[in-house]
Amino acid sequence: MSNEKPSWMHNQDEEEDEEETQDETNYKQMKDAVIFAIDISESMLTSPEDDPKADSPAMAALNCASHFMEQRIISNPKDMMGILLFGTESTNLNDEGNTSGKDKYPHCYLLTELDVPSAKDVRRLKELISDSAEANALLVPTSGHCRISDLLFCANQRFNLQAPNFDSRRLFVITDSDSPHDGDKKAMSVSTTRAKDLYDLGVVIELFPISRPEETFDRTKFYDNIIYRDPNENENTYGVSTFKSSGIGLLQDLLSDINSKQVAKRSLFNDLKFEIGPGLEISVKGYNILQKQIPARSHFVYTGGEEAVIVEGKTNQNREISQESVVKKDLKKAYKFGGSQVLFEKKDVDKVKDFGGPVIRLVGFKPKSMLPIWASVKKSTFIYPSEGGFVGSIRVFVALWKKLLDNKKMGIAWCIPRKNAAPTYVAILPSEEKLADNGKQISPQGLWLYQIPFADDLRSPPDVPKPIRASDELVDDMRKVVQQLQLPKATYDPRRYPNPSLQWHYTILQAMALEQEPPEKASDKTTGKHKQIDKRAGEYIKKWGTTLDKQARAFMAERKSSLKRELGVDVEEDKPKKKAKTAATTQKLEDMADSDVNKLAASGLIGKCVIAELKAWCAMKGLPSTGKKADLVDRVERWCDEN
Amino acid sequence: MAGKEATIYIVDVGATTAECHSGRLESDLDFGMRYVWDKITEIMASERKSFTVGIVGFRTDETLNEQYDQADTYDDKESYKNISVFKKLEQMTMSDLQPLQQKIQASNNSEGDAISAVVVAIPLMEKHTMLKSGKPGKYKRKIVLLTDGQGNISDDEVGPIAQKLNELEIEIAIIGIDFDDDDYGFKEEDKDDNKRRNENILKELADGCTESLFATAAEAIESLAKPKVKATKPYITYEGPLKLGNDAEYPETAMVIDVKRYFRTKLAKAPSARSMAITKTDALGSSLEDVKTSYSYEVNDPEAPGGKRSLQREELDKGYLYGSTVVHINESELNETVLETTQSFEIIGFIPNDNYDRFLTMGESCITIAQPTNEKAVMALSSLIHALHELGSYAVARFVPKENKPPQLLLLAPCIEPDMEALVDIPLPFAEDVRLYRFAPLDRLFTTSGTILKSHKYLLPSEELTKAMGDYMDSMDLSELGTDDDGNPTEYMMIDDLYNPHIHRLNQAIRRKAISNETVGEPAEILVRYREPPQTLKDQTKSNLATLKRVANVQKVPDKVVGVGKSKRRKQATPLSNLNINELVAAGSEPAKRTKIDPANVIPDFKYMLENPPVTEEAEHAFFTTTCKQLGAIIRSTLETSFKLPIVGGGPREKGLDRASEFLSIMRAGMSGLETPTIYNDYILGLKKWLLADVENVDGKQFFLDYIKRKKLGLISAEEIDMRTFLEVSAAKAEDFYRLTLELPDRTVKAEEDS
């Protein structure tokens, strides 16, 4: 345990991978707070006519919120979320001292306080969704009128008090009423000012409008007056989507739209200079669309108090000999060299990293086919044009994107994405838009910066004997197998494959946190569909296997006889004996065929092997390679029994 | 690659090597030693004990070698005179470096035979690389001879010596300063006859050896620039069956092939620096001391002094966070959250190549070959590889490298080369790894009413622009710009030519610093040669680029557009409907104009007031001052309230402090944007005084360090907002502000501004 790294210590390399904080907002916390504001009205509580069993829009919204909450715990464990119902009969938002007899935020009900969700919050929401009695008791629409200004100011207060200094604050409004003030000019004007307040507070309002059966939701009636967008981003104009409350599609549609807002859209870099040619520059933003999700690290906890708490850790740097703590100015960077240390001053460290300012500089173009499939070292970064540095960036970017697609080419560029980042060469690859079945975007149009490996990153493949090329017949047999077993829609769609170990980790944690029984078996969509494979391609695989057997035997017979011809019969007869002898005495465990290992185990001779051999063998077989010799021997023997 | 290497450098230090030739300003010795030092430090940088270095000098003032000591005859003694063994074959360390640098200086002597020096080196090599058993060990043996070709060289023994070198498998490299080399294109015009004769003798020696190199120093030095890529042994990441289907359940209809999987790419890492502490040893110098990291643990405890209680490692357990809920896990349960898996490599399906987007790739690639000794497996894998290749398909596989490791999904691609058939794999993303950020499409626009536009004057490219881009693209083609070994056009910027600039520059800087304490210079040309388009392309694409520039008509946004000068003040933000909110308010409808900051709505009120100042300029400044005063009072009261609260991670106290710091940042941004930085600077100086006045006030000090200093909320300097002429707070002064003393900086800023 002593040499284990505490959870708060981040690995340098990992750090580099994380999203970098932007210089201009470094006084902000890179955290996101989302409040779901769900309209509770008669129409929101009515299930669609054509399918009375389906969720009402309000229940669909709560379902989405619940799903969002569980997702958020996995993907953004530090971010906050809250749920605010509006239009309800009751309110729970009066301060204790409020004696005025008037509600502070009439018809607003805070279902979940804006905070990092707890296991209790998750459970409460799930119970509300599954227990209709409780839902009916709580979700009572007011007969009166709920003013949007109250909702907005209420949200304002939650953000202000609960999420101070967050760099991202978002209010998701889910409603089917496009004119909540019904022509009341005064109420409308108060709401627009309250919306401006939210804008000034840095809150982005996202509207999820639901169309009622007879009428289409019209944003221009009211909501366009309260929603602000950055004019430099040409993304506000991404179509107008409204959801139809009819049919069962609502939950799915809503879910996919809300999910696309799961992570606050933060850029990796802003207005980075993209030099298309000497003297022709545009500006782009970068986004981390791909980000490997892994379970959050474990923490040290202290259980001596009333409830378990996270322990804060501190690292202290001490001088090795005197054990005194080191003053920052005495800390220097040194590199190991020739059994000694070479000291680098700060200016040296800076200088050696300095290859000029941040830029993507195009060096030229190559056909797409010149990027070998193995030439891969890192995930790619998505870039999208911005007019922030150069006016006209968008049109030039679009022209480049179009031509890359048309000509099946890629750009090759020198890339320094941030100040002091080590330079890399990137291929610039265009992407076409991909839409889901419901027409929603799942993959955007734009360009990707794909890192090309350096010569330093290449590993030489092992030396192998000259390949034995399979016969055309055998290849034909295999081709039929391949053709039979296409993935659905003949494509790899990541959305179909949740990470089984990540999901399992959080399923177990959730069960532990809620003190429930964990499920018996993990759901794992990544395993092969064995039954289907047998059904669809079984016959072909069998045929291939027969051909292979026959041809492999023929090949070996042919080689044996040619060997005989070369060496003469008597030599050949002598040889195998000798070989078998040496094999038994000097061959290392990891070089032996499994059958030989089995033999060795059967004769109880595994114990004769040295520990290093046993360890290497276990590692090779994917077994744990730790422990005492007896454990290792035991493990090998057990493996032999099972196989 | 692992293995042992022994290298002996034989260096000519004759008096003539102090001269400068061929227009060089450094001595011939220094020139030639550039090559030797570089090679030696390269060996040192590898930190390998099994890489040894020896150094022999000839034409030295003194004589120090066994052959001389043991020679019986006068002639024998003579021939080994003026040859000194500077260093026997050993691992080279930093402490060896300086004495050697002192020894390798041009001597006052011109006697000493190069070939005899080789004879001295041979037994050194032989002895060092011999095993205890008396057999030669498995070594890479190399002798490098550096000479200016002056002095006398005897050619009697060249043949037998070459033979001996071959026998011992010693490679010899002869580096001659200003030696002629037709291939490289170097010829010394005023070469004297003696040197020409010597060059020929040495050439004869090189030619007599199986492994030899004969080069002029200039070429050798030039070759140093080419970075050396570290070779690594092939590393097996998996060995076992590759399956399709389940052979346990369906033994007849499952495919099982024994394979081995190796790394294909692996990101090379730059050497990492260690933290060391400087220790003053005496007045003259300082030394470096190792730094040990220790960990301490604490929890919030309102009853403990300072609100924190420290804990010992033994008192702690492990746990995870589920949202904000702490899930405590006993040591024995730690593995419960780990998904149980068994080692496996199985294909789950196939996809056509065209349906895979390259940018989805998550990282480094590996290569899978059939178990080489298993012919049947080789044949089986070959059929899969060829089937995939013929169909233009990839396989998708699930891979578990080891028991209970998380499964990965891999894309397998066929790879067919003359002497290798393999499957290359790259990692694929899972559902959670792809973020659903939505972006407006590039090729069409939506109006607010939902209409689709296919052309737009500013946001979509005209046909002319698209065509110009296409022409430019064609003229910037790299696919045939390079030249291969036979002089045929080939791809430019091949992966093999791309060196990691950072790693090699750092390695070189470390070596240079180690031998000569040079400061870091500019990167070597070869490391940055691809940082811009090649000159030939730049020339040939000129007119295409000019056209593209003209039709693109891109305009740079001036550097400081936000918040410079009152005239350019932030454009009033409007909602999507373009409704003017402030007019709405001004028109007298609700709510009334705000003149006082509501403590419940601080930021919006403050921003509103800044956007709606009085009309006259004097009134405006006074108004800003009073507005900031109001905000300032709120900040102070927020701090006062928060300081009284107990420390609970993420609790009301922390939130209060966060809020106060957000208010500060809003005030700072507002004042620098409106070019009234003095108002903020005055405030923050006052606040600092208030926070630090009382030495006992730990909270105040903590807030100053954790918030004001860390988030850079100090003085606004003239440089920061480009107001050199008006504001006398320099960047240095602004930096001084962050010190924990109250004397700095003084208030003259204010005084001058007022007068």
From TrEMBL, chain A:
GO molecular function: ATP binding; damaged DNA binding; DNA helicase activity; double-stranded DNA binding; hydrolase activity; telomeric DNA binding
GO biological process: DNA recombination; double-strand break repair via nonhomologous end joining; telomere maintenance
Domain SAP span(s) in chain numbering: 606-640
InterPro entries tied to this protein: DNA_bd_Ku70/Ku80, Ku70, Ku70_bridge/pillars_dom_sf, KU70_core_dom, Ku_C, Ku_N, SAP_dom, SAP_dom_sf
Key words of the record: ATP-binding, Chromosome, DNA damage, DNA recombination, DNA repair, DNA-binding, Helicase, Hydrolase, Nucleotide-binding, Nucleus, Telomere
Primary localization class, coarse: nucleus
UniProt entry tagged with the keyword DNA repair: yes
Active-site residues annotated for this sequence: K28
Entry function: Single-stranded DNA-dependent ATP-dependent helicase. Involved in non-homologous end joining (NHEJ) DNA double strand break repair. DNA-binding is sequence-independent but has a high affinity to nicks in double-stranded DNA and to the ends of duplex DNA. Binds to naturally occurring chromosomal ends, and therefore provides chromosomal end protection. Required also for telomere recombination to repair telomeric ends in the absence of telomerase. KU70, of the KU70/KU80 heterodimer, binds to the stem loop of TLC1, the RNA component of telomerase. Involved in telomere maintenance.
Protein name, UniProt field: ATP-dependent DNA helicase II subunit 1
From TrEMBL, chain B:
GO molecular function, one term: damaged DNA binding
Claim: Plastid is one of the keywords in the record: no
Family named by the database record: Belongs to the ku80 family.
Subcellular location: Chromosome, Telomere; Nucleus
Name listed for the protein in its UniProt record: ATP-dependent DNA helicase II subunit 2
Described purpose of this protein according to its UniProt entry: Single-stranded DNA-dependent ATP-dependent helicase. Involved in non-homologous end joining (NHEJ) DNA double strand break repair. DNA-binding is sequence-independent but has a high affinity to nicks in double-stranded DNA and to the ends of duplex DNA. Binds to naturally occurring chromosomal ends, and therefore provides chromosomal end protection. Required also for telomere recombination to repair telomeric ends in the absence of telomerase. KU70, of the KU70/KU80 heterodimer, binds to the stem loop of TLC1, the RNA component of telomerase. Involved in telomere maintenance.
SMART domains with a match to the protein in the record: Ku78 (SM00559)
UniProt keyword Lyase, yes or no: no
Catalytic activity: ATP + H2O = ADP + phosphate + H(+)
PROSITE patterns per record: VWFA
Keywords for this protein: ATP-binding, Chromosome, DNA damage, DNA recombination, DNA repair, DNA-binding, Helicase, Hydrolase, Nucleotide-binding, Nucleus, Telomere
Pfam family membership, one: Ku_PK_bind
GO cellular component, one term: chromosome, telomeric region
Organism: Calycina marina
GO aspect biological process, one term: telomere maintenance
Enzyme Commission number(s) of this protein: 3.6.4.12
Residue ranges constituting the VWFA domain according to the UniProt record: 6-206
